[in-house]
Amino acid sequence: MKTKLQIGLLPRVIIAIILGLLTGRILPEWSVRIFVTFNDLFSQFLSFSIPLIILGLVAPGIADMGKRAGKLLALTVVLAYGFTLFSGFFTYFSCEAIFSKILSPESLSNIDTADPGANMATAYFFIEMPPVFGVMTALILASILGMGISTGKGNTLRIILMEFNGIIEKLITKVIIPILPLFIFGIFLNMSFSGAAFQIISLFGKVIVVIFILHILLLIIMFAIAGTIGKKNPFKLLYTMLPAYMTALGSSSSAATIPVTLNQVKKLGVDGDVADFCVPLCATIHLSGSTMKIVAMSLAICIMTELPHDLLLYAGFICMLGIMMIAAPGVPGGAIMASIAVLQSILHFDEMAIGLMIALYIAIDSFGTACNVTGDGAIAIIVDRFLKRDRSAENSTS
């Protein structure tokens, strides 16, 4: 009997990235535009689906947690924002020590601040698919419905939500996950075709290397904490999250990676209800990687343009940054757009500095996103451990 060869998601994502980079400089523009058109359509479909995914996963997850839902919601929010703040200050102190030695104002002399996406191929046509409601609306609605069902006695709405949950899970496993590698291929194909992203990367090579090293260290620290609390090997946990990391690296969207993140978090041994609750929520509020990139890049520009960058100034900037970026959850490049107001009001960045920030952020957007979604696994482990301790305490007293 013949067995069908199955290629895992991680190899497919890696193949998609490599093929996109290799073929972008070879394929004619008309063929690149075909993939760009597909990506635009799939991106619109993702934007439409994400609020539904959040509602379909979070509400039933909260409902199944019962009375513990309120505590776990608060714990998840505190952990997500706490790790985001830790990332910001960890990055500030590390980069302050490093950048002062490797950067100088002369570094900006040959940098072109032109739009990095100017040479990218465009879609043949565009179909707008507006979501039924926004991501924050979905989170709030899911929380209200879930906690309401968990404390009520009726089963009608619970049954409806469970059936909706089944539909969403099929959407994730049968539609979104199989198409993601092709979507990732289209992103890297267009990046390679334009060449602009690589130009920005070469200009800020030192900064990018530092950011890459720091975000690996941050993930090790996060999973060391989670592994200690959850009594698990942190490096095995990190390895399990690798498919989510690579998917986010290719898609540059934490929202688009939710299905993969959810699948890998459950493989970590996290309870299914906790995973369904934590992963969509953290995709919106946990921004450690994005914070790291923006803090590091803004500090580099401050040093190169001789702007103030003392600790007190950056403390306020980091605290506000973690809140402002929630305004653009899961959207590729959305975090930098949401942070422009903070960059202008607190760090006093002018148009040239903002242009540099946007160009550099877009060029390495995927690294921060990959750090965000991988770190979601660490938060889920801690929340799951808290829930198990809570249950054990209840059983011992009963």
Query: What is the share of helical residues?
Result: over 70%
The CATH superfamily title: Sodium:dicarboxylate symporter
Molecular shape: globular
Radius of gyration: 21 Å
Distance between the termini: 54 Å
Number of domains: 1
- Low-confidence stretches are 1-5
What is the residue-mean pLDDT, rounded to a whole number?
80
CATH topology: Proton glutamate symport protein
Major sheet? none
Q: What is the number of strand segments?
A: 0
Text of the CATH class: Mainly Alpha
The SSE string, one letter per element, is HHHHHHHHHHHHHHHHH
Main structural class = mainly alpha
What is the strand content?
A: under 5%
CATH architecture: Orthogonal Bundle
Continuous helix count: 17
Short summary of the structure?
The protein is mainly α and 398 residues long.
Please give a handful of descriptors for the protein shown.
Proton glutamate symport protein; 398 residues; disordered N terminus; mainly alpha; 17 helices
What does this structure look like?
Helix 10 crosses helix 11. Helix content is 77%, strand content 0%. It has helices at residues 9-23, 29-65, 69-102, 135-151, 156-194, 196-203, 205-230, 234-240, 242-251, 258-267, 272-285, 288-305, 311-324, 334-338, 340-345, 351-363, 365-397. It is globular. By secondary structure, the protein is mostly helical. It starts with 8 loop residues before the first helix and ends with a helix. It has a single domain (27-397), classed as Orthogonal Bundle (Proton glutamate symport protein). It contains 17 helices and no strands.
